[in-house]
Write a structure and sequence with these properties.
two-stranded antiparallel sheet, alpha/beta, globular
Length: 288
């Protein structure tokens, strides 16, 4: 049995071995977009790739799929550099990746997201894969939704509103830990130009920063209308030490998710209709 954890470094016989060993597949999904004056365009790709790589390399039950580089970000196209993929193209492309994995025999696929506006589309991807392959589990999460990350943010974060939002303290700290030479430290900004609101668009990745209760309303505006620099949050509070703490928390939490995902049972469908549709008839709920 190969001890290689990178999916694309396997030979085809080793893929068969991995399927026989019931290995799970991690699929990191990133994006290419502006992150203020101080961070490169590859932040969403580099952070999720690092979290998944650090996790997969320490497991013998998980393969790491190559990161999906580009995502859905039309609202960022008022800043130079972003590469946006039409939402339907993005969904179909990612479904095709997961369906290919299911076709080869993998039964546990986990999409790990690194870009906020991919999240709702990856939910659709995961659902469609299960509809096509009822004997396969396909799940999705964004790395900042992991409880250990939220706890690390509460413990280590110093910035105020939007402290762990776009290119702010959290993302900048993590990037400093990974690629310090690529951070333009003389350009770090404290940009919380979006007006504080109880109900609309709290974009803080790690959860609420306000004490009062809120009812979040999603309304994604053009990015230049909510940020003057492309940053949302206070990047001046970032440090590599905090970044390592956030990365460690994400890896710890992802290990916990995979431990449970590995053992989560794939249950058979119990169709309660009086008449069921067989394999030779059209079934709108089972796309082929």
């Amino acid at each position: 049995m190969s001890d290689e954890y990178r999916y694309d470094k396997l030979t085809w016989p080793e893929v068969n071995e991995a399927v026989e060993d019931e290995k799970m597949v991690l699929v990191p999904v990133g994006a290419t977009e502006d992150h203020g004056h101080h961070l490169p365009l590859d932040v969403d790709r580099e952070l999720v790739s690092a979290i998944c790589e650090r996790t997969a390399r320490d497991r013998d039950d998980t393969l790491l799929f190559p990161t999906v580089d580009h995502g859905y970000l039309p609202h960022h196209m008022d800043y130079p550099g972003g590469i946006t993929i039409d939402w339907e193209t993005f969904v179909k492309h990612t479904i095709d990746i997961c369906v290919s994995l299911a076709h080869h025999g993998f039964e546990k696929i986990l999409l790990v997201n690194g870009h906020g506006s991919n999240d709702h589309l990856l939910q659709q991807v995961a659902r469609q894969v299960i509809l096509q392959y009822p004997d396969v589990h396909c799940g999705n999460l964004s790395w900042w939704q992991i409880e250990e990350v939220r706890e690390a943010a509460r413990t280590h974060r110093d910035a105020g509103p939007q402290g762990s939002a776009h290119a702010g303290e959290m993302e900048t700290s993590m990037y400093l830990a990974l690629h310090p030479d690529d951070v333009r430290t003389d350009e770090l900004a404290d940009d919380v130009s979006y007006p504080e609101s109880k109900h609309f668009n709290n974009l803080d990745l790690a959860g609420e920063t306000r004490e009062e209760e809120s009812t979040p309303v999603a309304m994604m505006e053009w990015w230049s209308t909510v940020s003057e620099t492309g940053t949302m949050g206070d990047a001046t509070e970032a440090s590599a030490e905090k970044g390592e703490a956030f990365l460690d928390a994400a890896v710890e939490g992802l290990h916990s998710v995979l431990d449970e995902y590995r053992d989560h049972p794939i249950r058979e469908i119990d169709d309660h209709h009086a008449r069921t549709v067989d394999d030779h008839e059209y079934d709108p709920f089972r796309p082929k």
